[in-house]
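Board notes, transcribed. Complex of a protein with iron/sulfur cluster.
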Amino acid sequence: MKMEQTKEQTKEQTKEQSKEQKKGQNKGQKKGQTKTPKKEQVKAVLKLLDEHYGTEVKCFLSHENAWQLLVATILSAQCTDARVNIITAKLFDKYPTVAALAGADLEELEQDIHSAGFYHNKAKNIIACCRELLIRFDGEVPRSLTDLISLPGVGRKTANVIRGNIFNDASIVVDTHVKRVSKKLGLTTEEDPVKIEMDLMKVLPKDHWIRYNIQIINLGREICKAPVPRCGSCFLQSLCQDY
Ligand code: SF4
């Protein structure tokens, strides 16, 4: 009898311990929330990225000033940077100022940017954006996120490209490569770009924010390609959560 009681007690204790362990594991982590990766893991990833791709902030979109980068970034939605650079090489010759683009004929601009895709919307947004720059910002590209995203055709991603590359303000650009690779590295579990940006802001040191995007684009184009990553030749193998 005494022995039976002990067995039952042991069963109950094990159940309770298991419940407590689960509670402990989930403590501070709501459903769908990214589990914070270990600091050493993040540090090791960033060190290897710096070693392989350097620390220089180099924009892939050709531009000579802020408004040109703004226009190039609007054009880059669903389009390769290489294609955008071919288009803008002629575009900025034809329309050398914000005022020239603000006064562009819609149909003519559509033809000028046709090969970027979504040319009707992009042309409409570029003209409207340049008009707003003239009317509200004296023809200058504003610095704050709030002002930038108030412009036609400018979302958070475009705004962060400008903040980082023009003003050197710490910001994280979440593009298709950052979205895909950050998940593989265990830095986020989110799908929504704004939530991914928030997760990355939490785990990455601020001085890596701008260059992280550039390094991950390089990794995403060369090694961690979609749909089939080249894990066999990846220098992040030992740190990758998806390998
Ligand atoms: S190991 Fe594979 S999945 Fe992981 S980052 Fe490298 S290429 Fe991408």
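DSSP finds twelve helices and no strands in the chain. Residues 39-57+171-239 form a domain with the Endonuclease Iii, domain 2 fold (CATH 1.10.1670.10).
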